[in-house]
Amino acid sequence: MSGGVDSSVTALLLKEQGYDVVGVFMKNWDDTDENGMCTATEDYKDVALVANKIGVPYYSINFEKEYWDKVFAYFLEEYKNGRTPNPDVMCNKEIKFKAFLDYAMSLGADYVATGHYARVSRDEDGTTHLLRGVDSNKDQTYFLNQLSQDQLSKVMFPLGEMDKSEVRRIAEEADLATARKKDSTGICFIGEKDFKQFLMNYLPAQPGNMVTEDGEVMGKHDGLMYYTIGQRKGLGIGGNGTSNEPWFVIGKNMENNELIVGQGFTHTHLYATHLTASQFTFTTEKERPETFSCTAKFRYRQSDVGVTVHLNKEDNTARVEFDEPARAITPGQAIVFYDGDECLGGGTIDKAFKESELLQYV
Amino acid sequence: MENYIYLDHAATTPMHPEVIDVMTEAMTSSYGNASSTHRIGRVSKGILEEARAVLAASINAASNEIVMTSGGTESDNMAIINTAVKYSSVGKHIITTNVEHAAVKEPLKQLERNGFEVTVLPVNKEGSITIQQVKEAIREDTILVTVIYGNNEIGTLMPITEIGEYLLTLDHKVVFHTDAVQAYGTEDIHVKDQHIDMLSVSSHKINGPKGLGFLYVSDELSIPGLILGGQQENKRRAGTENIPGIAGFKRAVEIRQANKPQLKKDYQKLKNRCIVLLEESDLKFEVNGSVENSLPHILSVHIKGVEADKLLIHLDLAGVAVSIGSACSAGNVEPSHVLQAIHSKAHPAIEETIRFSFGYGVTEADIEAAVQKLAKAVKFLA
User: Where would I find the Aminotransferase class V domain in this sequence (chain B) (predicted)?
Assistant: First the structure.
């Protein structure tokens, strides 16, 4: 239980269904400020209110060290390499459904339930399938793509069949303290803080030039790590160039510390025909052919695109070809495969290509 | 809370039914302000002064030496901060130990930030200091010695009488304060014989209401108040007195005083029984601190190889309340400074210790059931 409305309702629903529910709050990050204020402390108060209201015991556990080692270190390392990490994917894989799941099992739990918008369905043969949440706007399978069959076999997602609005309604009706609590946004450890400012505390920023593909200097950037492929906001270039179209980040040159910018949302350099990715895991243990077609998402809340996957089982890498050119493929983000409603698994994007040309994204 | 086994009486205690009765009565009929001249005010004043006499007698002090406070923490704060303020022209050196409660530790830290010098005596393996350590630490500018009477985490008793006697032999006055919050319920305290200048007590550790305590201040001292305002408590503690609470506190002290020798024996018996049962259940464990030189109601045990936080949850889900070394909220766990003091900074006992503490209503059958559940949980976690 995070102190948010989703996990609150999750606990309530399971309790109503007759499960023996134990609420657990995880503290993964310490953001105590000089006044002693800490987000976790405030959230924990909401856990207490909700758990007492629905009549379940609750406890808090600390995974700050695990989170730092497994998620935050990875997060920094990826930024250092000019990539855009996805800490939520890593947190699910290493913390929520590993460290925390293990902890829950050691307390004698049969399942771990979370407020994710996703579904699991269990076959007669014992296989658990990860399915998209019914609320397509909220579906969180993208972040759960790295879960293994072993992990999935021990999870429950009671909100998967619901719309967010229904979750809020249930919370209101049950008079839960979190019914109207604002959804958390952004990366959990950064919260509402300024992202640049946050990152600057951990990684030295190296300002450099913003250049066009032809090498024309258009301005200064604050450090390559602050920019993502396809980004428009915060470039501060206006009116210059060959048209009135806005400027976008279309590439990075790590060697020269240059941010490559180009004009127009549909800039040709933003479109890739295929990508390579690594660290693939699949949600079931079903044998995969080396080549198969399915749909894929390479960022959260994006519509699926048709792809053909060429899997290299030796090293868990793949070459993924798009049916149509895809815009702003971002190294470091997850590529996630679907077969209809089922999330098949995914990997981490390394490189994007336009035909035979490597797009200079990192 | 049927069948719930509460073994965390060092954290706080349930109120004695008689305490609840007198408080209910006081809440109903004695709503007056003890500072008021009129009749209903005088009723409250009467309750207040009768209580003060009972509290004073319980430690062999005089009534005018008792200052009502909001609890042990306020008593400790007042004793330490205001002694330092009062005597700062004489000296700025204070002596304490490394196993004090946070209510002593934190005020001392603040004094350090404000130019006072604090010598922190390290305890031995048992959790106690020796009088020799105090002698060696004493300086001409020492103004205060503050030492916990009996430790709240491991129960170890300190040589309070010896320290009091020794300080008396010095050429200059060194104020002696002791935090007796845990010890008050079972130990025979005689502030005059033991030469204690200030002593902190809390009501809720002895089946009284929460939010009340007292500070004994020897009438040979004149320590200013911490909470400023009205003239209550001889100007040493402003604020309208909590008369129903004070009535309950008085009753709790009366019950305690009448039963102390028996309670002491009962708790010691429970403690011994608990140790025997632990031995019989084949658990690998070690008692932290000392079994003999210890408060009878506290038993701190290092259960080897088992994470205490998980054990606590298992026991709680099985209906047994114990405590682990240190308080934890919102996932923040501070390693216990007491366990670190008697072991070492990274000793396994720090993560693997649970504390049983006994009190009103605890039976031998409770201990048997608790140890049985503990053994089951340990087996599950192994």
Answer: 5-369
